[in-house]
Amino acid sequence: MSLSVADSAAESKTRRSRLRVPTLGGGLLVLLGALVVTVFLSVALGSRSISPLDVLNAFTHLDRSVSTDGTVTLEMRVPRTLLGILVGAALGASGAILQGVTRNPLADPGIMGVNAGAAAAIVVAIALFDLHGVSGYLWFAFGGAIGATLLVYAVASLGRGGASPLKLALAGAAVTAALTSLTSAVLMTDDVVLDEMRFWQVGSLAGRYLPIFYSVAPFLLVGLAASLLCGWALNGLALGDDTARALGLRVGQVRVLMFAVVAVLCGAATAACGPIVFVGLVAPHLARLICGPDYRWILPYSMLLSPLLLLLCDILGRLLISPGELQVGVVLGVLGAPFFIALVRYGRLAEL
Amino acid sequence: MSVTLDKRPVPEDVPADIVEDELQRQRRGRQLRYAGVTVALGVLAFGVFVVTMMVGSYRLTGEQVLRSIFGVGSTPEVDFIVLELRLPVATAGFAVGLALGVAGTLFQRLLRNPLASPDFVGVSSGASLTAVTGIVILNAQDITVPALALGGALVSSVLMYLLAFKDGISGYRFILIGIGVSAFMSGLVSYVITRGTLHDAREAMHWLVGSVGLSGETETRLLVVALVVLLPLTAALSTQLRSLELGDDSARALGTRVQLAHLALIAISVALTGLATAAAGPIAFVALVAGPVANRLLGPAAGGVLAAGFVGATLLMSADLVAVHMFPAELPTGVVTGLVGAPYLLWLLATSNKEGAGG
Amino acid sequence: MTLRTCFALIAALLLTACGVANNESKDASDSKDGTWTFVDGSGETVTVDHTPKRIIAHAGPAAVLMSYGIKPVGIYGDESVKTDPNLQDVDLDGVTILGEEWGSIDVEKAAGLDPDLIVADWWPAEKAHSGLESGVKAKSKKLAELAPVVGASQGASILELAEGYEKLAASLGADVDDPELAADKKRFEEAKTRFEEATAAKPGLTALAVSPADDLLYVANPKYAPELLDFQSWGLDVINPDSPDKGFPYWENVSWENADKYQPDILLLDSRTFDDSLAKARKQPTWNTIKAAKAEAVVNWPAYWLHSYGHYADALDQLAADIEKADENIGD
Hints:
The structure holds 3 protein chains of 3 kinds.
Chain A: H1 3-44, H2 52-60, H3 68-101, H4 114-129, H5 134-157, H6 165-189, H7 191-197, H8 210-228, H9 231-238, H10 241-246, H11 251-273, H12 279-291, H13 295-320, H14 328-346
Chain B: H1 16-54, H2 62-70, H3 76-110, H4 123-136, H5 144-164, H6 171-195, H7 201-208, H8 217-244, H9 248-252, H10 256-280, H11 286-298, H12 305-325, H13 333-350
Chain C: H1 3-27, E1 29-30, E2 36-39, E3 45-48, E4 55-58, H2 59-67, E5 74-77, E6 96-100, H3 107-112, E7 117-119, E8 122-123, E9 128-129, H4 138-141, E10 149-150, H5 158-171, H6 179-201, E11 206-212, E12 216-220, H7 226-233, E13 237-238, E14 251-255, E15 266-270, H8 274-282, H9 291-294, E16 298-301, H10 309-325
Parallel strand pairs in C: 4-5, 4-7, 5-6, 7-10, 11-13, 11-15, 15-16
Antiparallel strand pairs in C: 1-2, 2-3, 8-9, 11-12, 12-14
Helix pairs in contact in C: 1-5, 6-10
């Protein structure tokens, strides 16, 4: 592809996207509205029946929320929902970035073993270094996430053909299997760790209250802000390494930076909620369906679609086996897999 | 990635009769090597089988174990330990390993892809799902559980076949869809476990990771019976399998009998996987690894089904030995096979030489 | 459940218990031909052709048997022998430890001990002896093939356990009239009287036995907790949860959002894991919506492990003191 062709292609793309700014911007607002409704549902629904009026009451009587309904609303459901928003956005953004950086439609923090890496590192941190609480093992989660990402990417890149979708998915499955075995081995030999990790391991928003939210929120917010800046670079990478270089992009450094952003986002998300799969795969694809290949739109769309999906699945999990609840990780595993299969069957896997 | 089958080029510029002689000599050599390696692997598997019954809180000698098994001059104490406690687990390990090894290598050869093993592509998780549903929700017992597992294995394979079919079956699409189906089934297994009154985390672990030590006697007995019936059938069909390996087109020329053989062999693998899963849960990677290891040992005689079975049995029993005796607490077998098998898979991917564009 | 139906239930259970106890006193004896028989908690009569000498016992019964001077050759428990409340201050010299974790018994080692009797509580809800419940490895369950299994039932009262094991010890040839044991029994009677007086002084006092976990607040069902049934019959109003889990009726599973469903005056927390449980509970924002929790009216509950008069006396004394201090109007 010659430079002039690329230029004009980029130019026409810009022109088109400029025309689409009002439409796509409006779309973002619609999504935001949908998210607000979902957030309200997430705060209003649960094993305790609290009328919508009482939910609103809880918010208007912040200073003297002594009623149980108030406590449940403000101290249990609100932190959980806020965490759902941030973690969902983080997983959606990481999925979009991973798909862009690896030019691979099957890239997803869950499938690529990133969450499993963070989980294994956390279990090791608790078992070997006696670290407790989310803030204690957060840095291990970052390390585990980046280690697993690099391992998967390296294995998939070896050999002729580079990191093809198939090899990436397989390497991810293999690394996930190995790390999960390691995690189970530690869990089953150490009762203290098992007790701490039993509920965390499945991937859930339940039981996550304000202290956990406060300890991961700064990292997630910084990571999300950083990922919004990745759009332009991802568009460059999408044209191929050579073209991207010609456009003045330092391809190697950009990749490293983006993997770092992904590690922070996935590490923090996993440390807070446990491994959650598939949402990072589905959201960017839906975003791409709506707004085409421009990552400057895909990223914000993913960041809204992903928490929307996560919260909806979480609510579904609460309603399905009420008064108990099903972990959101399980719901997503069941609902996300058909999407993955459809993607393999009907998607054009070789290109993005 | 591709199967590195040994297809040495026939030397050119050589008179035809010499080629013919050379081919015959090679064929004889293959047969000899096939028989030799298979017998050696069988002896090895039996050796590990005996060793698993020697270790434990009471160390027994190989002689004590053998005397007890064959009922020649043993004491009641040793008999209790060997026959009551260790033999059921060892038999389960042997049978499950054998079944997974055979099923794995059949799948890999029929789909012509080293990644296409039933544990990796969701047949085991399908069996798990129906078995655990039966236990938790229907209160199924005895023979119903393996029957359900068998049904689950069958349904999930048909499902995968239908999902992956698009102008024929592409091995890679089949595998990716298998991974998806597997994730789906595992998700449902977790759901069923939370639904039920299976309050015990240990039993849940059995159906998520797989463990030989938890296999029930009915399941093991059924698996052994199935192996006794199906293995000779597999051996008979496997001569036809050889011609299948030449590729679908050339095999088609041999007529519908080959297609029937194809179908029968797939059905056998699915059945063996289902019954093995009913006994020990979804133990990962044994089916994936057994075939390639056996083929490496068989060299030019690659493709021995029984050899792969023996490798599977050896691997599984060794993994269980490690899982039970080498850690501070007993681990499920699947944890060890996962720790060993996953790096093998990574190595397979890293050294693969063909672009897998999928689709 | 009203108080009256509750008492009716207890009375019914006590009657059944007495029935079993009567059977035992008739049947548990050395008959003349040297065979030994005992009626198990399940109601079945167990016969051995001699008086058993080599006994393997679960931690609780093991401690009781040792207090009667009968030392088992092997024991197995649900937790480490160092932390098991039954085995504190017990000399385990010469006793082989066969398992320190629920669901895992080293049957090979057990076989080597050549036992002639296995002693473990009978759990009526699960219809199994301790260590042989469903969910236990098939290999561990082979323990039952080594020797007959007997035990008192975890039924209507801890006294049923204490008396059952006293009878068992007597049938095994122990001197059950040892002065130290008599002192324990006397201490127990005194503690029971103190407990009854304490509850009588506070007729409105309600109690709830709970076990807090990260996902749920488990509320104990007294119907399957003999010590809670005892407390109820001795005047303490232990709340019966209205919808216990169908498959595992020991508990009602209450979500943390509904933690305030029951409002007792005091909360009973498993004494074996008291500090951990309390720390876990305090992480839940709704823990303090239980008024008793907010008032820190949380006391030790000797959950599921009591077997002997001595241990029961200690626990009752402590509880009586807690009740004397309790405020019966917290939960109202």
